[in-house]
Amino acid sequence: MFNTSDSNAVDFSYAINAEKSTAFSYVKNDLEIERAVIVHCFLNQVRNEEDLTEFKLLAESAQVDIVNILTTSRKTPHIKYFLGQGKAEELSSLVKEKNIQVILFNHSLSPAQTRNLESLCQCRVVDRTGLILDIFAQRARSHEGKLQVELAQLNHLASRLVRRKTGLDQQKGAVGLRGPGETQLETDKRLIKVRINQLKSRLAKVETQRQQNRQTRQKAEIPTISLVGYTNAGKSSLFNRLTQSNVYAADQLFATLDPTLRRLTIKDVGATVLADTVGFIRQLPHDLISAFKSTLQETCKADLLLHVIDCADPRQLENIDAVQQVLQEIGAEEIPNLLIFNKIDLLDNMRPHIEYDAQQRPVAVYLSAQNGEGIDLLLQAIQAHLKNEMVELKLTLAPAQGKLRHKLYELNAIKAEKIDDQGNFQLHIYLDQVQWLKLQKQENLHFR
């Protein structure tokens, strides 16, 4: 899962491109499952076991063998080890006894705390942020996703570089230029800075392309619906159910990383674009939010957010708060949203239904994406949120206007049709007012 490291440094390796010495890549070794111990510190009087359970699922998602779980309680973190001195020494003994290869902390550690623990335990230490980054690195499939993950990794790594044990400085060979030169640490920092700039430049191009696609949809007045929610809430299963797709969906954290967009046609709304996005989690690393900015723009620019919630999760209220916090961070808190309580099949005596507010607008839908119960109610609720004022009228088209007639059929706007004695098409149409105004501009229409 993680790279081998000495006790005083976070190890990483660079593959220097022969043609461009400034290019490098972060190298991971996934050849074997590593033995790990999980460390969790309860920092208040209430022992929140759910946090520890969730972190255990994260560790399993990272494909490690969890040998032991070490817990302790403190009022405040220890400045040197995060844990107390005694617990840190107990952890060191456990590492030697169980032949542990990596220590996973369910907390964000400072670079100094990480180095101190590695020195004491002679073992690699990975905090919560590092673990989430590693999972993202395993799941990234698209070119954009890999760029985003690498950028987040390097931003996290930049503050954790330390001097190597080699002690070898770079030397300049010309007369009058000999001296200490650039240390290996300075070289590493410079290479990371160059690579970060390269990644930002590439992602800026991706964002430009995404922006052009969004502008095209906006000109065509095609609304965008974005699925958001806590990780493993069932967003991809719902996406597949709505669009008849086969996007990867699994009962694991961060099964979806790369965004997927599909066309969806909804009655009285017409063509829409449905976007499946990465799931959120408590204490989502800010480096990830920054790196995935272009992906999250699909959420920020959406016309409607479908906030998918696992209603069988005992922490559903906390999960909702965590998602709302991330939406606020990316500037999407003002976008209209519809709560989707998924997995009702896991609850007793729960039937699909819609909840309405005082104005009789849908605010929540209860359904099961797994077996399809309540999907029709969801489409009904989306229709109520997105539908525009509808136009119903009678339209007469000459035989030569077959192209316009075909377009009306594509819009599913023709409710009835007959041909008069002159061969004209007598149409009874019902369509969105926006679409109707657009057709009026494109064609010289005569109707009654």
Automatic annotation (TrEMBL):
InterPro entries: EFG_III/V (IPR035647), G_HFLX_dom (IPR030394), GTP-bd (IPR006073), GTP-bd_M (IPR032305), GTPase_HflX (IPR016496), GTPase_HflX_N (IPR025121), GTPase_HflX_N_sf (IPR042108), HflX_C (IPR045498). This is GTPase HflX. GTPase that associates with the 50S ribosomal subunit and may have a role during protein synthesis or ribosome biogenesis. Keywords: Coiled coil, Cytoplasm, GTP-binding, Magnesium, Metal-binding, Nucleotide-binding. Its main location: cytoplasm. Pfam families: GTP-bdg_M, GTP-bdg_N, HflX_C, MMR_HSR1. GO terms for cellular component: cytoplasm. Residues 189-216 form a coiled coil. It is found in: Cytoplasm. Belongs to the TRAFAC class OBG-HflX-like GTPase superfamily. HflX GTPase family. It comes from the Bacteria. GTP binds at residues 229-236, 254-258, 276-279, 342-345, 368-370.
